[in-house]
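Quick note —
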Amino acid sequence: MKAPKRPELLLVLLLAACVSPPEPKPAPVASAPASRPPVASAPAAVELPDWRGLFDYAVSLRVRPPAELNREITRLAAEPGEVAQIQRAMAYAQLRGSGDLGRAIALLDAQQKQSGAQADALRPLVQWLSAQYTELRRQDADTDKLNQQLKDAQRRANDLNDKLNALKAIEHGLPLKPKAAP
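Predicted structure written out below.
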């Protein structure tokens, strides 16, 4: 590698590369005539969901007994809004009774079809919860199927054990064979 012939030029170029170009000045904006009322062109500010509150609520549901969860579901059914519907789905999912996960998924599916700024802000949470509850429902179905197979296998094992005991009883009831004389 050759040494540069003009190191001061190299230094100037390096320093020039570090400087950002000046920002262009904004173009002047023409003001609207005073006779026309102002038109709101920007959408109203959307209040973002209280994510921390929703997660704290989900954690609080885990320690509640079923009777309290049922009261909470009844209370939330009377409340309007997307957040109340999501909280109700969370409470249904925590009950884990027959059909409760299905109700939670149905509430979340209805929530996914909602439109509006608040619904759009909550959509990722709703989709995630729906996927989690669908997976839980599938696991519950698999568990029920495996439990049924276990019961069937235990019943068959008991039947075979009974047959074996009956054969042993028959064998004990048979007369002994005389020993052969040498």
